[in-house]
Specification:
Elements lengths: L1 E6 L3 H12 L4 E4 L11 E4 L2 E4 L11 H10 L3 E3 L5 E5 L5 E4 L10 E3 L3 H9 L7 E2 L3 E7 L4 E7 L2 E12 L3 H4 L3 E3 L4 H8 L9 E7 L3 H4 L2 E7 L4 E6 L8 E7 L3 H6 L4 H13 L8 E6 L34 E3 L12 H13 L1
Parallel strand pairs: 1-2, 1-12, 2-9, 6-15, 10-13, 12-19
Antiparallel strand pairs: 3-4, 5-8, 6-7, 10-11, 11-12, 14-17, 14-18, 15-16, 16-17
Helix pairs in contact: 1-3, 1-9
The structure holds flavin-adenine dinucleotide.
Length: about 350
């Protein structure tokens, strides 16, 4: 019987597990995917790691991220923004503006990608703590704590612990059988919390060189035409290749219907915005988070772009004494963000 079972090896779950383990607790992390990181994911080339999930941090206003980056010894780089900005209206017409909108505070990237931060947090856990490919399906309250059942490649596994912490987007909790069942109002409350960016998708286009800079462009653009709506330079400083990325403005259903043709459509749109060379990327990588069952639910397909006002939810007795809710959407501040993932881990640790 362990002290704590953390469900979900995203940044929040890993940070919570590490804090508990450093305090001497016996911890197990059950992770559904065959990798850690959750919404943090990199596309790796010889030049380095490109973020397909979160890419930006704001350490001047995010103290936990600032501390974690420092503790991991990682370098920060500014998002490249210097140069002209491209605007595409609904009809596809292009307008080039001398500059874009400076972000304040500036968006920073982590050298090695956000995955480097997640890996650094996980590196503080003893081998064998994180169990990959364990999809938690049931949590039962027991006399002494909880019994957590997960489906693994070797079949179902049930583990006992004093407590469990759910570090995943709250809507996914609805897919886990909790025994006894949570009261209906709590279930409804959890189901109403959108997973931040869970319905989103990103496209990454790789090139031999950042040719848009020759034309005085920053690589930033906004489009009302789609399939992508917002673009940025994703190049790695000093790398012998260059990259642009964009967020899709097309909703999940349209993306799914046009999936096979999306790389070509993305390349064509990039060409329209940034010139002929942009239409010939070396590679286009598409990461559609709406299709990932361990990130998004059907309800997340209808998420808006506005940032929800996330508030922590505590489970009532008797569940609350045994099951803590973590994950970025349960954060007391910066809900939905990486900073929120750490803040929620901290709050769950102190609960
Ligand atoms: C496209 C995109 C862009 C983003 N951009 C930014 C950004 O620039 N800056 C920023 O701060 N934030 C950004 N975010 C948000 C950021 O990704 C999240 O705040 C953060 O990654 C959440 O971490 P988490 O650990 O709370 O959740 P997650 O990373 O979602 O981790 C939850 C984990 O639980 C696992 N899991 C799910 N169900 C089960 C189950 N039944 N059993 C076991 N394990 C399970 C999942 O596989 C996953 O590993 C972005 C997100 C996306 C998708």
């Amino acid at each position: 019987m362990s002290d704590l079972i953390v469900i979900g090896a995203g940044l929040s779950g890993l940070a919570l597990a590490r804090a508990a383990a450093e305090r001497g607790a016996e911890v197990i992390v059950l992770e559904a995917r065959a990798r850690i990181g959750g919404r943090v994911l990199s596309h790796r080339t010889e030049a380095g790691a490109y973020d397909l999930g979160p890419a930006w941090v704001w350490p001047t206003i995010q103290p936990r991220i600032a501390r974690a980056v420092r503790a991991a010894g990682l370098a920060l780089t500014e998002q490249a923004e210097a140069g002209g900005f491209v605007f595409q209206d609904q009809t596809g017409r292009i307008e080039r503006l001398p500059h874009g909108f400076a972000q304040e505070p500036p968006s920073l990237r982590i050298a090695g990608g956000i995955a480097a931060l997640v890996e650094a947090v996980a590196a503080g856990l003893a081998p064998g703590v994180v169990w990959l490919e364990h999809v938690v399906q049931r949590i039962a309250l027991t006399e002494a704590g909880v019994a957590v059942t997960a489906e693994s490649p070797a079949g179902p596994v049930t583990l006992q612990a004093a407590r469990a912490a759910l570090a995943l987007p709250p809507r996914l909790i609805g897919g886990i059988e909790i025994v006894p069942a949570l009261p209906q109002p709590i279930q409804a409350k959890l189901a109403a919390v959108p997973g931040w960016m869970a319905g989103q998708a990103k496209a990454l286009a790789l090139y031999d060189r950042p040719f848009w800079r020759d034309a005085g462009l920053s690589g930033s653009a906004f489009s009302q035409a789609g399939p992508l709506g917002e673009f940025h330079d994703a190049s790695l400083p000093g790398a012998a290749e260059a990259a642009l990325f964009g967020f899709f403005s097309w909703p999940p259903a349209l993306r799914a219907a046009r999936r096979a043709g999306l790389p070509a459509l993305v390349a064509r749109q990039l060409g329209t915005l940034f010139g002929a060379e942009a239409a010939r990327p070396r590679d286009v990588i598409i990461q559609d988070w709406a299709t990932e069952p361990f990130t998004a639910t059907e309800a997340d397909h209808a998420n808006g772009n506005a940032h929800p006002d996330y508030r922590p939810i505590a489970l009532p007795a008797p569940w609350g004494a045994r099951i803590t809710l973590a994950g970025a959407e349960m954060a007391p501040e910066f809900g939905g963000y990486l900073e929120g993932a750490l803040a929620a881990a901290e709050a769950a640790f102190n609960a």
